[in-house]
Amino acid sequence: MIRLKGTATTYGDLWFGEEPPRDPGVDILRYRCRAAPIAGVRCTPFLSQVTDLAIGEAEISGQFNRDCRYKVRRAESKDELHAEFIADPQSRLDEFRAFFDTFARQQAHEQCDMQWLRAACDAGQLVFTIASRHGEALVWHAYATAGNAAWLQYTGSCFRDRENDYRALVGRANRWLHWKDMLQFKKLDFVRYDWGGLFEDESATVHAGINDFKKSFGGRVERTYDCIVPVTLRGRIYLPLRDAWRKWRMPSSGPAETAPGVAPRTTRA
Questions:
Q1: What is the pTM of this model?
Q2: How far, in Å, CA of 175 to CA of 132, rounded?
Q3: Domain residues for 171?
Q4: 74 and 206 housed in the same domain
Q5: Do 4 and 122 meet the contact criterion of CB atoms below 8 Å apart?
Q6: Complete DSSP assignment for 153-206
Q7: What is the pLDDT of residues 227-257, one digit of tens each?
Q8: How many whole angstroms from its chain centre is CA 188?
Q9: 33 and 53 part of one domain
């Protein structure tokens, strides 16, 4: 369980059917990506793309579309890329933040939640991966892990204002790194590679493009549920107060997220 300190309460995040400890020591439990909603509590349906790692490597790659397979093969054979899989990322947190926040500024995207990253790392549920070329990092991925499942929380690459050949290289490196990540997680007996969400509304071109990127790797579209369960009196009192505060703020300044660790519910490709 990933424990996070909020504005007035402490949260515990449970992923993919994790069960809470007997004494979780938090005010609110947040169940992420549950297969079914929990009766009697607030649950939000959520759509994502999932790759099954329990099947063979050839079966996984056989689901990639033609363009995706070509770019992964070219990256593997010609681009001189190097992959890192960092299962103990404590010493790399600041490096990740510097890279991702640069990407976020370029893309007008939210910067990473450093509190969540530290908490996930402390819980032993954070993995970083990097694709680099000649010592230069091209792409970083950050995953939340639980049991035999991995969730793509962040992905970033910096190529704005670069020439087309470089942009194409980074695009191939990103696809290649996803493939290398799948293989490494599979080697560690993971069976679920979750792409971190799909946009249900594809009217925005960028949203449709991100969905198309994820779907180009095949797999299945799956609906899961995020459920919020107060477990202390403080939690039961706080949730309706928080909701009232958000409702009051929304017309003038947009929703105020006071709970930590709530990244946008889909990652950029």
A1: 0.91
A2: 13
A3: 49-221
A4: yes
A5: no
A6: EEEEE--TT--HHHHHHHHHHHHHHHHHHHHHHHHTT--EEE-S---S---SHH
A7: 999 999 999 999 998 888 778 876 544 333 3
A8: 19
A9: no
